[in-house]
Amino acid sequence: TVYRGEFSRDQQDGHGVESWPDNSQFIGEFKEGKKYGHGVYKWPDGSVYHGKWDHNMIDGPGIYTGADGRHYSGQWQASAMHGCGCYQWVDGRCYKGQYVLDQKHGFGVFNWADGRRYEGFWAKGRQDGLGRLHNATGNQRLARWENGERKAWLEGEEDGKDAKNPEAPSK
């Protein structure tokens, strides 16, 4: 590892650049030898994170852009998506809502590229609890979900397009 930047008491402290043999790089603020404050981390594959750090961990508001174009903007804790955020996939899918330790958890809205939408509750990355499923033509139904599976329609008209287990949204 190579560090170029400010020091205090023989530790990285202030603005600096830390580089690794695999071509990953951190450009930003250090405090008492640790990444702290605002910084940019670049992975060898081209993925980039811009945002807050605390004790060498991604922590606070930040934006991650994957080498393949995936994009997350929101809160982080201990280097995991944690809190409110928006995750967008390159195929047009999008999730806006709550995360706990990198998984959809709490209330959120998931949009598919074909116009379908789920608005409701999540647990451990899957639909869980009450949720409203909208099809691409605007029809909607309220349902009860458990572990990603629809258990019961609670209202509305079935239109044939909404499957029992609509495409499982991935992280």
Automatic annotation (TrEMBL):
Q: Which UniProt keywords apply?
A: Repeat
The source's superkingdom equals Eukaryota
Cellular component, GO annotation: cytosol
Q: Which PANTHER family match?
A: RADIAL SPOKE HEAD 1 HOMOLOG
State the name under which the record lists this protein.
MORN repeat-containing protein 5
Q: List the source organism.
A: Polarella glacialis
